[in-house]
Amino acid sequence: MERRDQGTKVVPFSPDAAFFFERGVRYLNRHDLSRALKSFRKAVECEPSNAVNHCNLAGVLSELGDFEESNQVLQSVLSEIAPDMAECYFYMANNYANLGEYELAEEHVVKYLEIDPTGEFAPDADEMLDVLIHEYGGGEILRESRRKQLETNRERDRARTLLEEGRFHEAGTLLEHEIERQPDAVAARNNLALARYYLGQIADAEALTRHVLDIEPLNVHALCNLAVFLRHSGSDPDEYKQILGLLKKLTPLQFDQGYKLATTLGILGEHRAAYSLFLQLVEFGDRHDPALYFALAAASANLRRLRAARQWLLEVQALDPESGVADHYLREIDRVRSNNERLFFSYTYQLPFHLRAHGNAQPAKSGFSRIGAWAKDPGVRSSLYFALFRGPRATKREALQAFAVLNDAESVHILRDFVRDPAQGEDMIWNALFVLQLSRVAGAVEVWRDGALEDVHLPLRDIRLLSWQATLEGIARDVQKALLGSDPELADMSLDIWLRYVSGVYTDLPKIVKRSVWAAALEYVTRRTAGRVEPQAMVAARYDVSVKALARAAHAITLAL
Predict the structure, then answer these.
(1) Residues 6+ away with beta carbon under 8 Å from 310
(2) What is the DSSP string of 471-518?
(3) More confident residue, 462 or 190
(4) In the beta sheet, which residues pair with residue 476?
(5) Could you please report the per-residue DSSP string of 386-442?
(6) Residue of 379, 307, 374, 317 whose CA lies nearest to 343
(7) Of 108-122, 191-205, 529-543, where does mean pLDDT reach its minimum?
(8) Fewer CB within a 10 Å sphere, N or C end of the chain?
């Protein structure tokens, strides 16, 4: 029988980062710092992308008194491995304090508290900051940090207000500044995406939102925005369905997230899911918010549950009787019931635009009769932008008239974009330049002409145009002066009407020989529009003009409105 030799079997041993990490911890527990240091260095070598290993190495270096190398390791973590690892700033602050670099220590501990004010080391950081200020004469860095934070908060609030008022360009500028300061500021990116969306820049809005989702894959606001953008563009129906399905499964933990999600689901036609979420917000949130009860009324009405909608509207009426919102929609419910019609509620807690624009329940003849009523409506602003850039010629002219009436910084931004757009005809670009001139824009304006961008200087060097503009402004002042003392509301309305007239005829300038004739005509048309008619002879006498001349000028103004 043959005998087989039984050799020794050798199993190779290749220690990994976990092995050296565990060994390092054992040495630390025995206070054997030199061996702990070697073990953590080996762990870093085995797994150089693991930030925790680096931090352990920095901690041992600090224990050994090598504060400078410890900070070098921590700085490399922040710059190369984990920029969001806020605790590194706290560790570095400790090292700088031990080195006697108290100003740098304060700088880093303040930075830590800025990034993670409720973090694991926040109580220790507060205590360290207190010592640095009271025992080592610090505090300037903290004061500067608080000043900058206050400024940032003010700018953020300002951007939010501008966005709510429909001044998307201005809001975008502030939000871009915030993103430059904090590249991963997700709230600023979400709001900037909305600004881009309202300006019709759907691709930019989607790109900004996807960047947020790269940072926070389950960011509720970004997911809601992306669903709305995809539905609007229709670019990817499958992705839209996927995101909508995800939204319907989400359970937000914060009130603002829940409100955003519920509103978005309602906008997307998922009224049942929206109702359920709004009901949860009422049950567990603020029971005294009329907007929440109105949202429940809207969802109920859109689900054809008119009895429930009425009950929720009665809650709104009790909480906010002055707004008139509940009164209007209660009347609408009665109307559709009697006529057997379908009723759709917007989820936005406000009166419909045509009622807000005129301050009563009856639509007025003109859409632009009162500037203040619609200038801060983001939906109207967005519609005007779309009409100006993408509408037919007649609609573009109407939009230009509206921007002439608005006459604010946002309108100037939009018109500057418009005159640079190659897709617009030269005559429309000329019209927009004229509105810019009416808005007192001066200096070089970049304009698309003859297949290239070139600078056009405002005011335009046309003697007839310049003198005509001065005459127009004089007429407006004359009527304002005549009406301001007796009826400020009529004075405001006269300016609105005059701006609409001017913006409607600037491509065919009328010959104005006698300024007082047009001032009289403007006052007469204003009074007639407001329902406070005076005989033409009475108005003509106040301005010392003939009735015939007044009637002719009034007819011209009326035709252009």
Answers:
(1) 297, 330, 333
(2) HHHHHHHHHHHHHHTT-HHHHHHHHHHHHHHHHHHTTS----S-HHHH
(3) 190
(4) none
(5) HHHHHS-HHHHHHHHHHHHHH-SHHHHHHHHHHHT-TTS-HHHHHHHHHHHHHTT--
(6) 307
(7) 108-122
(8) N
- Residue 225: pLDDT above 90? yes
CA 284, 320, 382, 166 dihedral sign is negative
Q: Identify each DSSP E strand in 303-405 by its residue range.
A: none
Q: What is the pLDDT of residue 485?
A: 64
Span 9-30, mean pLDDT? Answer: 67
Nearest alpha-carbon partner for 156 in 181, 174, 182: 174
Roughly how many angstroms between the first and final C-alpha of the chain, as a whole number? 118
The enclosing H or E element of 358 equals: none
Q: Which of 439, 558, 441 is nearest to 505 (CA)?
A: 558
Determine the pLDDT at residue 366: 37
Which has the closest alpha carbon to 379: 405, 401, 412, 347?
Answer: 347
Q: Are the C-beta atoms of 460 and 433 separated by less than 8 Å?
A: yes
Decide: 405 and 500 in contact? Cβ < 8 Å: yes
Task: Say which DSSP state 356 is in.
Answer: H
Instruction: Specify the pairing of strand 443-449 against strand 452-458.
Output: antiparallel
Nearest to 403 by CA among 360, 374, 424: 374
**Identity at 340, one-letter amino acid code:** N
pLDDT tops 70 at residue 549:
yes
CB 225 within 8 A of CB 240: no
Q: How confident is the model at residue 363 (pLDDT cuts 50, 70, 90)?
A: very low
pLDDT mean across residues, the chain? 80
Contact criterion met (CB below 8 Å) for 496 and 405 = yes
Phi, psi of 135 (to 5 degrees): -105, -20
Written as one letter, the residue type at 203 is: A
Note the pLDDT tens digit of each residue in 395-404.
Answer: 787 778 778 7
- Is the dihedral angle over the CA atoms 435, 200, 198, 346 positive or is it negative? positive
152 confidence band (pLDDT: 50, 70, 90): low
Task: Decide if pLDDT at 299 tops 90.
Answer: yes
Report the distance separating Cα 555 and Cα 534, nearest Å.
16
Nearest 10 degrees: Cα torsion 233, 234, 238, 240: 50
420-470 pLDDT, tens digit per residue, is 888 887 767 877 887 888 777 888 889 887 788 888 888 765 544 555 566
Q: Which residues pair with 447 in a beta bridge?
A: 454
Look at residue 313 and tell me whether its pLDDT is greater than 90. Answer: yes
**For the chain, percent of residues with pLDDT exceeding 90:** 18
Q: What is the pLDDT of residue 277?
A: 92
Kindly give, in sequence order, each residue whose CB lies less than 8 Å from that of residue 37, ignoring residues fewer than 6 positions away: 57, 60, 61, 64
The residue written with tokens 């709510």 in the block is 164
Please answer whether residues 453 and 447 qualify as being in contact, where contact means their C-beta atoms are separated by less than 8 angstroms: yes
The per-residue b/e assignment along 124-152, b for 16 or more CB within 10 angstroms, e otherwise, is: ebeebbeebbeeeebeebbeebeeeeeeb
